[in-house]
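Below sits our specimen:

——
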Amino acid sequence: MNASLTALEGIRVGHHQRVGRGWLTGTTVVFAPRGVTAGVDIRGGGPGTRETELLRPENLVQQVHAICLSGGSAFGLAAADGVMRRCAELGVGLQIGVAPHEVVPIVPSAIIFDLGRGGTFANHPTAEFGYQATATASRRPVRSGNVGAGTGAVTCGLKGGLGNALRLIELPPASDDPSVQPVYVAALAVVNAAGSLLNPESGLPWLVHGKAGEFGLRRPDREDRRRLREVLAVRLAGFGIGTAGEASGAPETSSALNTTIGVVATNADLTKAECTKLAQVAHDGLARVANPSHLMVDGDTVFALSTGSRAVAPAPGRQTGRTLAGPGSRAEFLNRLLVGGADVFAAACLDALLAARGAGAFPSYRDICPTAFITP
C-alpha cells in the first residue's frame, strides 16, 4: 500500500541528493502540476522560507504548483529556482499572459540547516537540485530515510531523515457514502529537530506511549539505553532536560541550528484558510514527537495542501437546516481532519527517525539501540 503523499491523486514527489566527497545534503519537491490550494504555518524561531506570505488567506494567489523542501540553510532556497525552471518548461504555473508558456510557477519553499555535515561547508543544494527533483517526481510511493531533503538531517546528535504517513479520515454518519471517494490525509516530514524524538530513560520514542509493539519496537537493553543517554546528554542538558546517565564528555557533533519541515496534504476540498488551520494543527503532531520543539534554533515550518478532489460538507452559512458545528456540519468534518493531520504528521516524523541510517559522523537510532527493533 502507498502510505505517502503520492497516494493522493494530483501529487508527485521527487528527490535529488549528493552523498560523499564532502556532500551530505539534498532536496525534495512535492509537485502538483494541476495546482493545489495551500496554507502554511511557521512556529520555529529561525525559519528559512520563500513565497510563504502569498499563502495568507487574504492574498491573491489561490493555488501553488510545487513545494520545495531542501537542505543547505538559506543557500538551499536557491533550489526553488530550478523547480520554477522545470515547471516553466512544462507550462505549469499561474497563467499571466495569453500564450501557454507565459506562466509564473508558484513554489513556496523551506529549508533545514545541514551545512558542513558532509565535511565541506560550501557544499549545499543549488538550482540544479530543484530541477532534477522536479524532473524525476513521480506517483511512486515516497521513500523514507536518508533521501532528498532528509539526506543531511540530524536530530539531537542522531541521524534524522525524511518520513511518510497516511491516514483514512472516518466521516460522520450523515456524510458517509460508500459510493464517493474516501478522504485521506498524508504527511511528509523532514526531521532535523534540535530536540529529541527519544525518551532518554526508556530508550523509546516519546510517541510510542507504552505501545512499542505496535511500532515494531521494544524497550532496548540496558547497554543500548546507556549508549543512547550518552549521545543525548550533551544536547538535552543545553535545554535543561536531564538524563539518568552521565554525559560522555565528548564534544557535541551536531549543529545547534536545526528545523523540522514538511507537508500535510488531503484530497478534501479545502479553502486557503482551512489549509492554514490544517498546517497549524500539524505542528501539534510535531510537539508530541519532539521534545523540545519550536525553539529559537528551529525553523519549524509546515505546509498544508488540498487537491480538492473530494467535496465535503458545505461551508457555514450555506448549510440548510444544520447547526454551525452539529452532526454533518463542515466544522465537524474539519475537526476530524485536523485531528488526523496532527496524528499523521507525528507519525511521519517517527517514520523518519526509524528509517534513518547512520551517515558521516552521525549514528542512527538503529545503530545505537539495535535491541529496540523487533526482527521477524
In short: Confidence is low (pLDDT under 50) at residues 244-254. The radius of gyration is 21 Å. The longest strand covers residues 23-42. The chain has one domain: 5-372.
